[in-house]
Design brief:
The structure holds 2 protein chains of 2 kinds.
Chain A (H helix, E strand, L loop, with lengths): L1 H17 L3 H28 L12 H24 L3 H31 L8 H32 L9 H27 L1
Helix pairs in contact in A: 2-5, 2-6, 3-4, 3-6, 4-5, 5-6
Chain B lengths: L2 H16 L6 H6 L4 H31 L9 H4 L11 H37 L7 H22 L28 H30 L12 H32 L10 E2 L2 E2 L7 H35 L6 H14 L15 H13 L1 H15 L8 H23 L4 H5 L3 H31 L5 H27 L19 H31 L65 H9 L4 H8 L1
Antiparallel strand pairs in B: 1-2
Helix pairs in contact in B: 3-5, 3-6, 3-17, 5-6, 5-7, 5-8, 5-9, 5-15, 6-7, 7-8, 8-9, 8-10, 9-13, 9-15, 10-12, 12-13, 13-15, 13-16, 15-16, 16-17
The chains are: A mainly alpha, B mainly alpha.
Chain lengths: 196, 622
């Protein structure tokens, strides 16, 4: 009996660690809903495309640059996360600032890309192939705004020294969400490259 | 120690400190974060919507049963929608049908059923202080409320509410020129639905997180009550399908308000072509039914879960085939996502694809039949106690059979050519989805009313309510099968112009009268509900002698549910009439080591390993 109790004591903390923080779990579920929205839109895209009467045009190269920018911001976000974990506050602030700048640069780049589309006579109103492109990139940008707000909140708390190795839940959530939004864009970009 | 564990401990301490404090009226009843109050908010709002939705059906049943009747007396309520000659405006008839569908499917049977019972029962039955995020839960209700306000407003505008059917197919719903209701009414419908989707997603995320992360010690997935399994899977379905409706609605908004052509193409109005080119209305149907069919199970599963619990409790028998029940619910969950095109057999779908979807659709009969047999075998030779909740649960099983059988006909792509869009379809889904889920809702209210309000509902009135509703439902929907087989199309304002249908005038009159009686019976329920809330008999601790954890909480639980420690769970929730036991039920929190007289062989082994000593628990937690 005594030994089994000791075993129980040893097991207890490990069981607790295994269960995920509820908020982090909720974030993952939110990510699932976003995945479903874009799964619906991209499959609608394929279904509609297969029906013919589909305007074909070149994707602006700005999209490629934007993708690189966004992936870079993912990298810096992760560096900020590692810095926060090691309580390296100087690096944390620097990387958070760089991430924010890159994120804003992505927005500017997407705006430029829309401009480039208009130059090619691809408008929001017109053949669905163009409309879909605007809706997909627009809805992604809309989600990215929520990610940017999250980053700004973390940036401010980083400057108030509220992000540190003992208080990582929000930082982890922010990192996860940002990585997801970047991954989502990479998927959408590749999807559009293959199917435009 | 991990941060997760720290935060959990903090939350528990926080609740322990505060569960007796006095809250202000606003934080207790309005902007509350207590899952129990939020559940009640959903219930009351759902009942209000139910009254409105059912009231609409009364008006259009008047038109269908008595087409010659002078409806002038409705003018104080409907104003200009009643013509000079005392006739119902045909476009308003379509609007009534549309709003009846929208309200009943989304506002009553999704928010009112799953919103009420998931919120109320999940934390109480899994042994949690509250939902994972009380704030998100509060937002979920208030988004639903906002959606309700917008939808309600749309009923009162000059051009009337949306009128293109609850499925709002474009191009009818996309073009304001087509029908009055596709103007502002449709815009408000879409806005309301977006808020509704947000509300359901916030709720669903919370339900899933709570079930996975906040179960009490010992509450493994194989010890979860079937209610929780049902709510959990409902939330999973909602989480996967509502975003798709969001995408569909978003594209429809762009088509309506920004001039895009996702769903519109080659349309001529008054001889003039619209500029929209290249859209596909079928695309909308695919997107809509990808939500629309899982939605059926969002409505159905909670009702089935509630029934499992009520039937097992009141038959005083363990549920038959616990694992098979879970398996069939999982099966239904998966299948619900791969059958959507059976709503589109006659939309020009490729016949080969049609037969694939037909095959998948008919497979659903298997898990459904497993559930029916398990209900019947649970009831079989049980010491059945006929509470109103039991009666409604048995009624539910009856609808599941009679409504489910017609599904087999409709699922056949060939027979569907004759039956689609007739009253046969109306009869089918009103039995299996509408009445079944309403019965689940009513069974749940009768069963958990003592927990919700600390008082009992009147049993006699409950019995009268049941028999009138049960017989009434069959009187309404059974004749509709015949009308449907004869070819009556649904959504038609009147058939008086078709000689072929004049022989069914009496039948339609009969259906209408049956509907009015059944609706009248619901006022017995309403009286019982509100009267018992204040004047009912005080509820005992465990009125149904049930096993689940909610009955171990105080009769009127405060915020935090249990004043002391959360009970631990040692057994599954269906130990009813266990051979050798002193009582005919053993609640989940009774350790196996306390019931040596009734333990089975493998439980004797488990009992030896059990750690029951409270001090030992405290040590292992520290």
């Amino acid at each position: 009996m005594e030994t089994s109790l000791n075993k129980e004591q040893q097991l207890q903390p490990s069981i607790k660690i295994l269960s995920m923080h509820p908020l982090k779990f909720a974030l993952w579920l939110f990510i699932v809903t976003v995945v479903m929205i874009f799964a619906a839109l991209t499959s609608a895209y394929i279904v509609r495309q297969s029906e013919g009467n589909w305007l074909i045009f070149e994707l602006p190269t700005v999209f490629l640059y934007n993708t690189i920018i966004l992936v870079a911001s993912s990298v810096t976000m992760h560096l900020a996360y590692i810095a926060a974990k090691k309580d390296n506050f100087k690096n944390l602030k620097v990387f958070m600032i760089i991430t924010t700048i890159l994120a804003v640069a992505f927005f500017v780049g997407q705006y430029e890309a829309w401009g480039a589309l208009v130059e090619r006579d691809v408008y929001f109103v017109g053949n669905p192939s163009g409309s879909f492109l605007y809706v997909i990139s627009g809805l992604h940008a809309f989600h990215l705004i929520s990610g940017l707000i999250f980053i700004l909140i973390m940036l401010f708390s980083a400057f108030k020294y509220k992000v540190h190795s003992k208080n990582m839940v929000k930082m982890e959530m922010c990192t996860t969400y940002w990585h997801f939004l970047d991954g989502l864009w990479v998927y959408l970009f590749i999807f559009l490259l293959l199917n435009h | 120690m991990s941060t997760a564990a720290e935060v959990n401990i903090d939350q528990d301490v926080h609740h322990d400190e505060h569960h007796d404090y006095e809250q202000s009226f606003i934080s207790k009843y309005i902007f509350t974060t207590d899952h129990k109050m939020i559940g009640k908010q959903f219930l009351i709002t759902g009942i209000m919507w139910g009254l409105i939705g059912v009231g609409m059906s009364v008006i259009f049943r008047l038109q269908l049963g008595f087409p010659e009747m002078d409806l002038g007396w409705l003018r104080p309520l409907l104003g200009g929608w009643i013509s000079e000659q005392g006739k119902l405006d045909p476009e308003f008839y379509l609007a009534l049908v549309t709003m009846h569908g929208t309200i009943m499917v989304f506002f009553v049977l999704t928010a009112g059923l799953s919103g009420t019972f998931s919120n109320y029962l999940i934390p109480l039955q899994i042994g949690a202080r509250d939902m994972a995020s009380g704030f998100m839960n509060m937002l979920s209700y208030w988004f639903f409320f906002l959606s309700s306000v917008v939808m309600m407003a749309s009923i009162f505008i000059e051009t009337g509410p949306a009128a293109g059917g609850w499925v709002v197919y474009p191009p009818l719903s996309a073009l304001p020129q087509a029908i009055q209701g596709s103007g502002l009414g449709m815009t408000l419908w879409l806005v309301a639905m977006v808020f509704f989707i947000v509300s359901m997603l916030l709720g669903g995320i919370n339900y899933i997180t709570t079930v996975i992360n906040l179960r009490t010690e010992g509450m493994s997935f194989s010890r979860l009550p079937l209610t929780i399994w049902a709510f959990f899977l409902t939330a999973v379905i909602g989480l996967l399908s509502f975003p798709v409706l969001f995408a569909a609605a978003l594209l429809l908004v762009f088509d309506r308000s920004f001039g895009t052509s996702f769903y519109l193409s080659d349309i001529y109005i008054g001889g003039e072509a619209l500029p929209n080119m290249g859209g596909s209305p079928i695309l909308y149907q695919h997107l809509f039914w990808f939500l629309g069919h899982p939605e059926v199970y969002i409505v159905l599963l909670p009702a089935l879960g509630i029934t499992s619990e009520v039937i097992a409790t009141n038959s005083r028998k363990p549920i038959f085939g616990y694992k098979a029940m879970i398996g069939s619910m999982l099966g239904i969950t998966v299948l619900s996502f791969v059958v959507w095109a059976h709503h589109m057999f006659v939309s020009g779908l490729n016949p080969f694809l049609g037969s694939v979807f037909m095959f998948l659709t008919l497979i659903i009969a298997i898990p459904s039949a497993v559930k029916v047999f398990n209900y019947l075998t649970t009831l079989w030779k049980g010491n059945i106690i006929f509470t109103p909740a039991t009666l409604f649960s048995i009624g539910l099983v009856s609808f599941f059979i009679s409504g489910g059988l017609t599904g087999i006909f409709l699922g056949n792509s060939v027979i569907d050519i004759q039956l689609h869009d007739t009253y046969f379809v109306v009869a089918h889904f009103h039995l299996v989805m509408g009445s079944l889920s309403i019965f689940g809702l009513l069974a749940g209210v009768y069963h958990w009313f003592p927990k919700m309000f600390g008082r009992m509902m009147d049993e006699k009135l409950g019995h009268i309510h049941f028999w009138m509703t049960f017989i009434g439902v069959y009187m309404i929907f059974f004749p509709m099968h015949y009308i449907g087989i004869a070819g009556f199309p649904r959504r038609y304002y009147s058939w008086t112009n078709f000689d072929a249908f004049s022989s069914y005038t009496d039948l339609n009159m009969f259906v209408s009268v049956a509907a009015f009686v059944t609706v009248a019976a619901q006022f017995i329920f309403l009286f019982n509900f509100f009267y018992s809330m204040y004047r009912g008999k005080r509820a005992p601790q465990n009125p149904w002698r049930s096993n689940t954890l909610e009955w171990t909480a105080p009769i009127e639980p405060g915020h935090g549910n249990w004043p002391g420690e959360i009970p631990k769970v040692y057994r599954w929730p269906y130990d009813y009439s266990k051979p050798g036991a002193k009582e005919d039920f053993i609640p989940q929190h009774i350790p196996l080591s306390h019931t040596p007289e009734s333990n089975l062989d493998h439980e004797v082994e488990l009992a030896k390993k059990e750690v029951v000593d409270k001090t030992a628990n405290a040590q292992s937690n520290a």
